């Protein structure tokens, strides 16, 4: 009987060492992206992050020649959706489209199941956001001064819907600055809070300009913008400072991050694509219609922004003696 020749022992040992690496080598050979990308939004549909995510995802689908799906995961002031991405595989197929409050304010308010810096790879700052104080059309106040005066004279008369930690903190700052007694009502995102003020569930919200259609239809009334200058979308609406309330502004942004450990070449490609997309005339026009300022930063720039704002919000929360209740 003829014997089958044996392989040299060194070849067998080399094959045994290489065997576990074969799936990794095969994966590395795949061009990115080779399957659909998931963009998790940590707030409800229709809000700031959802609007920006859908605009960005449509353009990324075109440029990457791959489906990019938006997946809203609201809850716990953005913590639930953010944690999903923190624990996802760092392969570029799960991304986070978040806003400033979820990434930089929550560390000052809650014990988090993730590290907002170490567990993420910054990709790009997409846009800076502003805000406007809106009331339901049935609220009798026509100016910010009238709203404050009525809230002072009749404690608990007005309710304020807050879809994020940042918007709740702004509401608390307004109460402290004006002496207005307003009932806080939490919501899971700026979309649900807008639906609440339109439907009369609450009397007022600070809206990051996602509800302009309702302003035009007369369902809600703008009383003041929370910026350092008037909005071109609402040129007749004063700033909070012009209305006599100083030191309060909505400084926010929308940004894209990935799980920590995502390959640098993937992070770099996505950052480059996003910067190109936000520079497109039609994208800039759509963002401007929401009073959003397109940015398109590098990963390093976004990382520095996150670090600086985490430190800032910890200081602001401590100085305001603000305690999260939800």
From TrEMBL:
Q: Name one Pfam family in it.
A: TctC
Look up and give the organism this protein is from.
Piscinibacter koreensis
Fetch the InterPro entries from UniProt: BUG, Bug_dom1
- Residues of the signal peptide: 1-28
Q: What is this protein called?
A: Tripartite tricarboxylate transporter substrate binding protein
**Coiled coil where?**
none
Protein family membership: Belongs to the UPF0065 (bug) family.
Ordered alphabetically, the record's keywords are: Signal
